[in-house]
Amino acid sequence: MAGPSNVSNMVVGLDIGTSKVVAIVGQPTDDGGIEIAGIGSHPSRGMKKGVVINIESTVQSIQRAVEEAELMAGCDIHSVYVGIAGSHISSMNSDGVVAIKEREVASADIDRVIDSARARAISEGQRVLHVLPQEFAIDTQGGIREPLGMSGVRLEARVHLVTAALNAVQNIEKCVRRCGLDVDAIILEQLASSHAVLTEDERELGVCVVDIGGGTTDIAVFTEGAIRHTAVIPIAGDQVTNDIAMALRTPTQHAEEIKVKYACALTQMASGDEMIKVPSVGDRAARDLSRQSLAEVVEPRYEELFTLVRDELRRSGYEDLVAAGVVLTGGTARMEGVVELAEEIFHMPVRIACPQNVRGLADVVRNPIYSTGVGLLHYALNENRQGLGPQEQDGGLSAQPRRNDVSRRGPEEGTSALVKLKSWFKGNF
Ligand SMILES: Nc1ncnc2c1ncn2[C@@H]1O[C@H](COP(=O)(O)OP(=O)(O)OP(=O)(O)O)[C@@H](O)[C@H]1O
Ligand SMILES: [Mg+2]
């Protein structure tokens, strides 16, 4: 298999979702985009509501996805940028202040002020995942985005701190390492998704991105170019499927199929004349159901979900500051009628977004289910462009020194067991 021209700048995003695990290999293009070299996807077994509940099953899903991506990209994957979600995540805004040593802000001053902002009491069992600078103030001048080189005596920083349960982080790391891979960095999923789907203008104007997957709905709010608020709601597409299974008394896999093919989130948009067949449990005969009746089952759950998101946005204090409205992504956003229903509830413009700035397998990855996976690549490449090591940019903790994410796979090597074994040993020792 022909390998890509240059593997040294390739990075790999691994999205361990509740519905599917995706590994995406990409490299930067000259225009600031991403060339996708390979993608592997496998149904996720072993995750619930965004967290690992079965290590063995999760490891298998990751292995399959990674092998598929390796085959397609013609390279061996050694390390990955991984996403994290779940109700164990918490976030807060925090301030720090230091004296400017030489009366002119040096990068060491910026590091110190960010350190001082992150030095908050973190609950036991939580680990800091991200320290994301929002803005700086020098003496009495606030609203500074780039303080380097500016004169003054006192430097203040305001940051968004994201923490995650240590156990949940360790379980993800364990699963990845068992596959013979290193963890470059662990990134909050909605932060990754926002890198893939938001425009610069939206971030500046103010926007709320909502990634609705199978297990969790992940929210991030941006205003004036910086992240202000993040939250996770443990309700998403799995609940919709469950509602259909219960209401129609049909097995879950049929409910899932019916949902994806025929469901509509807004009853008034679904026709009462269009009939679908619903398989029953056991050996009872299949029944006929109108699409409108199906929508009547689905709408209340989407309505509940959007109401919870709106309440969260209201609580955060940013509801009136998101002039660009709401950007929906994730598989559950793909249902017909979702934008219309969401606009009714949010009273602001809503759009559904797919990953942007991608080339290569663009037709495949321009799908809301890949926003996190592609976003992990954007995050990683951003970091590399700035010449920073993993998570140094936002002050997160890095477990491992950085090495190349991928290496070229020779045509004769293929996926031979020996090569796999070698790379497994490389990853573990
Ligand atoms: N066309 C569609 N209409 C409605 N729902 C859909 C459609 N396509 C996919 N879904 C739903 O999207 C969900 C999967 O989305 P996604 O792949 O973004 O989740 P995930 O990333 O694996 O999960 P999570 O992020 O919650 O851990 C499933 O519940 C699936 O039923
Ligand atoms: Mg997801």
From TrEMBL:
Residues 402-412 have a biased composition (Basic and acidic residues). Residues 11-197 form the SHS2 domain. It comes from the Bacteria. Residues 387-414 are annotated as: Disordered. Its main location: membrane. It is a peripheral membrane protein. GO terms for cellular component: cell division site; cytoplasmic side of plasma membrane. It is found in: Cell membrane. GO terms for biological process: FtsZ-dependent cytokinesis. Keywords: Cell cycle, Cell division, Cell membrane, Membrane. The keyword Cell cycle applies. CDD domains: ASKHA_NBD_FtsA (cd24048). SUPFAM superfamilies: Actin-like ATPase domain. NCBIfam families: ftsA, PRK09472.1. Self-interacts. Interacts with FtsZ. HAMAP family: FtsA (MF_02033). Cell division protein that is involved in the assembly of the Z ring. May serve as a membrane anchor for the Z ring. Belongs to the FtsA/MreB family. This is Cell division protein FtsA. It comes from Halomonas halmophila. The gene is ftsA.
